[in-house]
Each structure stands twice: as structure tokens, then as C-alpha cells.
């Protein structure tokens, strides 16, 4: 039987900075030195927050924590590419994006300590709380983006998820709905190479994850996720496309340099050689080299930024340590009407059993 080719597709890969900080000027956004320095500060701030949080968890001061070490370039650049009127729909390791959008580190640490108050979004902000189920937040973003389309507003919803989420039906459904209904949404897949311990090569035979957008009839593009300039360029274009009702799927190629969560041991499923290889592509070091070469950042600037971050985080940690919480409240907000089983559990808790 003869075959007729009915469609062809391509997936572009974008990189503005290589590992040495050498730049491709075609993808350098014109954002000004102040914004570039602020992006760098937010990346350093997120890295240090994660390091401090891991130490706090090891001492038993906070619960299970999902660090984003190595993924700061993707998160900060994506968040900065949004306008205040846009929505940020996170998964569970978007500390860097939250910080870049103005959420204070104290709130992130409160949430990690089990205080739901930490997930409360400040008045006037357009961020959703962390989403633990893998991939479900993509549906939330598609709904928000569709809602903005219906209202005739130009706000966009940007959502983050990992490579593992592309194996979930939720992501397929979200991209399909977005494409079919012209939803104003940008999907940012942080391909950090592992879905917990499962490498990307065992998740799919697809050459890229960006090509999964093809089935939904939307644009898919791949970018070096450890290149903050490249990510900003790609996501800024994707956001403007989404404002016009053309959703975009961005695959950011990055690497989770730490554990999946503090309950994980990555040495079981990956090698030290692999980790050392990816260390050379660290997004903060690469961005720092570039900014120094352009005269945007000096050694004194770096020292000043580091000192400010240390002081801020020390204050945040002290404030969280002094916070009080009524632990029995965990039983209060599960059901509209507390069933007998939950009531018995609360009574046992109050008796210290």
C-alpha cells in the first residue's frame, strides 16, 4: 500500500551560553544589567536556601525536602520572564521560582516544617501552592490558561514539571486541552534526567521530550536548562506566544545535582563520574563567568551578595524556629464534617497515645 507523508516536524535546541560562559549573541536577551544581576542573586539565594534546608532536615528540624540544586537556571529565568499578572503553577521543588517571584524564604521553610501557613500565597500574588502529585499541576495550569482565554485577558499560566511527569496521563491531557482550546499556558519540563531513580532513557523511546508537544498540536522546543540566558530567551518568547493563544512546551535540559528528596540516595542509581561531568555545566558558575566577563559582576559584588543571602537566611531560620504551631490542627481540615475515625485519632493524639 502506498504511503503519503502528511506532516513533518522539527524540534529546535537553543543555547546562549556554553559551559565556559561563551555567548551566542543571537539568544542574548536585552534585559539590562540590573536584571541580570538580580537573576544571579536569586539563583545563589535558592542554592543556599536548599543547602541550609538539607542541613536542617538532617538535624530533624524540618521534614522531607526536595532540593532544586542544579536547576536554578531554569527556574529563575522562567520566573523572571513572566509578568506580575501571569500565573506560576509549581510542582514540589520550585523554591528558586518562588523566591524569584517574591515569596520569602521563611514561607518555604515553614511549609517544609509542616506548617501549612507556609503554603499561603500573599495577597496580590499569582502563584499556586506546591503540588505533590506528579503531573497534576499541568492540568491546573491548562485550566487557568483556558480561563484567561475565556475572559479575554492576556495573562499566562506557566507550569513546571519533571521528565517523569511526561509519563503521566495528566501531562498529555493538559497539553491536548491547551492546544485544542487555545489556552494561554506555557509548559516547562525540567528534564533533570531522573524520575526519582528512573533515568530518562528508561521512560521513553522518544529522542526528546519536547516532541511530545506534537501530538497536542502545539510548539515544542528544547533549551539548555543550565543556561539562564537561553532559558530566558526561550521562555520569554513562549510566554508571548501563549498570550496570543498558542501554548508552548519547553523542555529544559538540566540535571538534579542533589537527591530527589532528602529520603533519597542517588549514589544507588548514578555514578560519581556522571555527577562530576554535569558539575562542569553548573548554571550558577556558568552565569557567573559570563557576568564577570561582561563587567556586570565583580568579586566584590559576589561577596556582597553572598553576605546578604547568609544574613537573610539566618533571620528566616530563626523566625521559623520561634514559630509555634497547634499540631492538633492536622485533624481539623481533612473533612468538612469530622468523621468518627478522625475524631478518635485526635482524641488519642491529645491523650499522648
How does this model look, in words?
- The chain is of the alpha/beta class and 353 residues long.
- It has two domains: 12-322, 3-Layer(aba) Sandwich (Rossmann fold), CATH 3.40.50; 326-353, no CATH class.
- 42% of the residues lie in helices and 10% in strands.
- The chain is built from eleven helices and eight strands.
- The chain has helices at 33-58, 72-80, 95-100, 105-112, 136-151, 169-181, 228-243, 272-279, 283-293, 299-322, 340-350; strands at residues 12-14, 87-89, 157-162, 185-191, 194-195, 198-199, 219-224, 248-253.
- A six-stranded parallel β-sheet has the order 1-7-8-4-3-2, sandwiched between helices. Strands 5-6 form a two-stranded antiparallel ribbon.
- The N and C termini lie far apart (73 Å).
List keywords for this structure.
353 residues; alpha/beta; Rossmann fold; 2 domains; 6-stranded parallel sheet; two-stranded antiparallel sheet; globular
